[in-house]
Amino acid sequence: MNTLSTLKSTTLAIALAFGAMSMQAVGALDSKAVEDSVQNDRFSLETDFKKLDTDSDALLSQAEFSKDEFFTKGHFAKADANQDGALSQEEYVNYKSGAQKTAAKRVVSDSVITSKAKANLLAERDFKSTQISVKTFNGVVILSGFVDDELSKVKAEEIVNKVEGVKSIKNSLVVKG
Q1: Model pTM?
Q2: 8-44 per-position pLDDT tens digit
Q3: CB-CB contact of 2 with 125 (8 Å)
Q4: Contact 176, 147 (CB under 8 A)
Q5: Which of 3, 20, 152, 154 is deepest in the core (most CB within 10 A)?
């Protein structure tokens, strides 16, 4: 077996092992640990609410809410469940915890897409993929690095496009030569 094949096989084994360990770690969480984590997160969000409530009226105005760096414009209206123009602590905690969970799921999903894309590139026979970098954000895969020819650039995109969850690909691979 040549050195490149050995390197690809070793890298693929490491990537697959990392993915399996991550899934085992997630599965190992018991319900008590999850419940404790939820309680700690709630307490933390309640503390954040109190810090943002600068006028101590137990409500967040849009101006106070905008000081939370986690949110961008447009979130206030979504968080204001009763549409009264102010956020109670409950509205704030419920909205922010949901937004954090959504963000965490996106990161996990993007990580899975990136891992699968890298594994598929490495597994492809007679394809030099060691100089290709793969990053994913919101299902959009960004390929960067160097390939030997235009055919390899197209082939890399085709390989990655078969990965479940890929919404689109930005192919920034550069042909050496």
Answers
A1: 0.57
A2: 555 555 555 555 444 444 444 455 554 555 566 777 8
A3: no
A4: yes
A5: 152
Query: Helix 31-52 vs helix 89-123: angle between axes, to the nearest 10 degrees?
Result: 120
Query: Domain limits at 74?
Result: 3-175
Q: 85-105: per-residue pLDDT in tens?
A: 999 999 999 998 888 888 888
Q: What is the end-to-end Cα distance of the chain in Å, rounded?
A: 28
* Tokens describing residue 114: 């990136």
Q: Distance between CA atoms of 112 and 118, rounded to whole angstroms?
A: 10
CATH of residue 139's domain is: 1.10.238.10
CB 71 within 8 A of CB 60: no
Burial 42-72 (b: 16+ CB within 10 A, else e): eeebeebbeebbeeeeebbbeebbeebeebe
Q: Other C-beta atoms within 10 Å of 93: how many? A: 20
From CA 116, how far away is CA 7, in angstroms rounded?
17
The total of structural domains in the chain comes to: 1
Beta-strand ranges (E) seen in the chain are 132-137, 140-147, 168-175
